[in-house]
Model the fold of this input.
Amino acid sequence: MGKKRFLGFVVFVAMLFAAMAIKAQDIEIFEPFNVYTDKNARGNHYVPSGWMGDYSDVAFTDACTDNPHTGNTCIKVAYRSNVSQGARWAGMYWQNPPNNWGNRKGGYDLTGAKKLTFWIRGEEGGERVEEIKIGGMSGTYPDSDSASVGPIVLTKEWQQHEVNLKGLDLSYISGGFCWATNLDVNPDGATFYIDDIRYE
Done:
């Protein structure tokens, strides 16, 4: 290899490594961001405060010890189809700050998250959760984006599901997690369990 060709090769390799270094700096490393792992876990974020629809038909606890996926507790939701508020559906949002429907400042910058993962199971199997959602708050301080997955037909065994967040604007999310279901798909009600909710 001639001197000029060798010098050209050296310059090319140097430029290639410089480009790789710049690209590596542009890659954001997103640390897992928990919504729920255990009752009162220090790393939990958001509060299950946004009751919706026939809220009187929902019995809720985030301290259930009945076969959690991991740890000591899980979330238990018991939906009874009594149509107490006349809505024929029910749901709940995990919010920041509590009871924030977009009328107050709050939320988290979750830029870099690629998915929301969670584990879920039914008490009997066959229960149907119509939607699992993130974001969607409107108002004076709206969420920057939203995404959802569903419907999900449950089994008695724990199963992991995810909401795809790729390409979304996650710079301001007050509604960190939401579930919803209804009378039409659960005419006899539904009891289900959720655990290990996290952004990844």
